[in-house]
Design brief:
globular, Isopropylmalate Dehydrogenase, binds 3-isopropylmalic acid, homodimer, 2 domains, 40% helix, ten-stranded mixed beta sheet
Chain lengths: 355, 355
């Protein structure tokens, strides 16, 4: 069966790193993988071309694909667009929602070769390997009512943080299963001492726990979780949380590694279809300068091969190639360090392909 | 004029550290300050005694006081209370709301003597001095509608994140004024690429900016702020944000110092009345063991003297005393390090009083 892969370069450094992913996909084809690659516009690039960050054509192609690879969206160029529905971010949110990509897997792991890049003391982060499971199609990102309106003579802004039992259960199961495959520890993050929606969240996690007797479930308030990530991140194995807390904590966790330019992520729906993207953003400040680190994007290809295409062997080859390039002392600027060779985006792509 | 101070020990280590604050207040009286100290119950302690985490008597005393000193509330003992309105946290939230304590000042600064306590590399945190200004009586903590109810055959939990222009303006002014007194940089944190309520937030901050031409205003998305705090915390001077983002970010920032047991906080209303409390929680695991660090609580007394009672000289004496105790190598267990002398709560109180 031919795997259809949709490549969405997006904005900022997106096109540069997507180009390296395209080369990698080509190499996979040459190695015998039956994949077909298409490209489409999303985000600011799509807005500029069609006045819409998620054109119908892109969405149709996405629906038809087995997997999607996304670079990054957004940038100051589009920050002035008043209408949220037209902003680049809406392209991303629209894809997540329309494809039902509720399960977001954000690994934060530290490559031993890059231990010194972390802002934390080496002993606190050596061997760090956390998996954050973030709910991605619900919560306050999508809740209604929402808007800005006049009340009692002044404007008021409002959003709704909402989860149903079934939404919580669905992401809970992804997290419990992930914990079973890993260190068997699951920490659910909420603010159940203040927010009713997270009281329900905690209750559903508790209800699921007996079905996964090999997993040790704990609960943590989000403020404490933010502290514990800074204080002793290795206490975590799998973390599960809602859309907004997940946004914040997964970025903090990724930054603990000091090398967010290395971290891929996956967003999956109920049928295993997935969108894969780097954890980092569109980095408009370095766009077009052949400076961006393409490794998170290339590792997103590996993650896609594993989770959506069932091509584990090829995924491992890519991950091993990245490891050996790091062993060889090659670094892009974001992870540069003394005694290592700093190279550009293209050269890093070359090195991985060669390895 | 006699200053009325209300001491609310609360739960967990609250009573132990409050006892040290009481001794310090006594010493202030002996040194000629005209203060009158009363005590009352709040949180779990008040629930146990009166079935209510914020008894009317406590609230009345709080309203009549010039300033309130709070230890900490909450603990696993009360986590099973189903009704959020009866939980210890509600005592704290009720005080904030009823007294209109909308302006929460949470300094995160690193004592040079404790630089090694941070999990971050010393060069990243040396000299760290951030002031987080958190809105404390609005946002999702207090928004309506809220609850858990049945919809389409299943339970749904929901909360409302809401701010009016006037609420945003009020906290914005506190933050701009704080920035004027400090490094003249203000970073407003929002999620304006997704949440309408924070689009309004950003707009109001922009509107205020021209009135404070000496302050440089910037904006940052909350996920990025969580990353930047880990990556390069010294880039921040004053940070202003809403209730929930402030909860998360101020805890992360406090933990960057590695010595959250040292950090006081203030919550002020429009007439300068304030509640002062340590940034740390009730630490039930070490309660009753004479192990807790009383310094954040004693520094809260200093903050109270400065912000609510106008007694700057006495505030400085207390801060200097804490500095000299640290210089003498005295440490509680939470900030213990090699070559330093580890002492208990009482002994630390003694040392500060002696200094
Ligand atoms: C771009 C933005 C809408 C998005 C989010 O907040 O989900 C991003 O920060 C992410 O985490 O993927
Ligand atoms: C105890 C809790 C309700 C409180 C909050 O979330 O505001 C605490 O975490 C704080 O930050 O003061």
């Amino acid at each position: 069966m031919t795997h259809k892969v949709l490549l969405l370069p997006g904005d900022g450094i997106g096109p540069e790193i997507a180009a390296q992913a395209a080369r990698l996909l080509k190499a996979c084809q040459d190695a015998g993988l039956d994949i077909e690659v298409e490209e489409a516009l999303v985000g600011g690039a799509a807005y500029d071309a069609h006045g819409d960050p998620l054109p119908a054509e892109t969405l149709d192609k996405a629906k038809a694909a087995s997997a999607i690879l996304l670079g990054a969206v957004g940038g100051p160029k589009w920050d002035k667009i008043e209408d949220l529905a037209k902003r680049p971010e809406k392209g991303l949110l629209g894809l997540r929602k329309n494809l039902g990509l509720f399960g977001n897997l954000r690994p934060a792991m530290l490559y031993p070769q890059l231990a010194s890049a972390s802002s934390l003391k080496p002993e606190l982060v050596a061997g760090l390997d956390i998996m954050i499971v973030r709910e991605l199609t619900g919560g306050i990102y999508f809740g209604h009512p929402r808007g800005i309106e006049e009340r009692n003579g002044e404007r008021v802004g409002f959003n709704t943080y909402v989860y149903s039992e079934s939404e919580i259960e669905r992401i809970g199961r992804v997290a419990f299963e992930m914990a079973q495959k890993r260190g068997k520890k699951l920490c659910s993050v909420d603010k159940a001492n203040v927010l009713e929606v997270t009281i329900l969240w905690r209750e559903v996690m508790e209800r699921l726990a007996p079905e996964y007797p090999d997993v040790e479930l704990s609960h943590m308030y989000v403020d404490n979780a933010a502290m514990q990530l800074v204080r002793a991140p290795k206490q975590f194995d799998v973390v599960v949380t809602g859309n907004m807390f997940g946004d914040i904590l997964s970025d903090a966790a990724a930054m603990l590694t000091g090398s967010i330019g290395m971290l891929p992520s996956a967003s999956l729906n109920e049928s295993g279809q997935g969108m894969y993207e780097p954890c980092h953003g569109s980095a408009p400040d370095i766009a077009g300068q052949n400076m961006a680190n393409p490794l998170a994007m290339m590792l997103s290809v590996a993650m896609m091969l594993r989770y959506s295409l069932g091509e584990n062997a090829m995924a491992e080859r890519i991950e091993a190639a990245v490891g050996s390039v790091l062993d060889d002392g090659l670094r892009t600027a974001d992870i540069a360090s003394e005694g290592m060779q700093t190279i550009g985006t293209d050269a890093m792509g070359d090195a991985v392909l060669a390895a």
